[in-house]
Amino acid sequence: MIHTLRAEWTKALTLRSIQGTIAAALLVPPVLAFASALAFDGEASTAASFSIESHGFETAGFGQPLIILLAALVAGTEYIDAQLATTLTATPRRGRVLGAKFIVTAVAAVAVGIVATSAAVLLEHAALGEHGLSVSGFTAGMGWNLVGVAVNYALIGLIAAAVTVLARTFIVTLVVLVPLVLGLTISWLGPVPALRFLPDLAGLQLLTDYPGVGLLDPIPGAVVMAAWAALLCIASWLVFRRRDTTG
User: Which of 14, 84, 103, 143 has the greatest count of CB atoms below 10 A from its CB?
Assistant: First the structure.
């Protein structure tokens, strides 16, 4: 398993498309956080309704589409150039190949989430000046929020990777999942409350607090999102072990 994992990790990190996606995922949240701090008006009435501990975390949602792209590339690139047949010839145990792709996806998503969100939080609070917190003023709740971002990124990455394997193309993954995380379903949450159990909305409050919207709380949301990820990963394994014999 170690050799398979090392091979998948090497393949992922040497692809320019994946390198570029990781770079974008690391840069987008901090840049948006800095812009948000510059636009922040401490005297505005809306400022009081926004928790000071939430500054920086509101940009984590903008990283989700890039995590989906990252996962889709890790799981789906070999379908483009027919390299999957070579991979399966070198490693006939398909469970190892798929498991390695899932592990690489989850680890990369967690690392990106922690680094990018930490940078966003630090940068936004520094740019806010007297309206922000110093590092010594950071709370334990902010640490748990960072853990929530990492969990959300890992789960949405696994969901995206599983969908890519099921569809055998990352185009379907991007067309289906990216519009969801960009707000397509949350706009219908009022008239259709059951939408909060969809994978994109279930774990949304892991990223930051969305009061009064009707979303699941972070822990129940994480459980529902994990169930979606487990279901899709098992489904992808069931089809992958019998399909893709020729790449």
Answer: 84
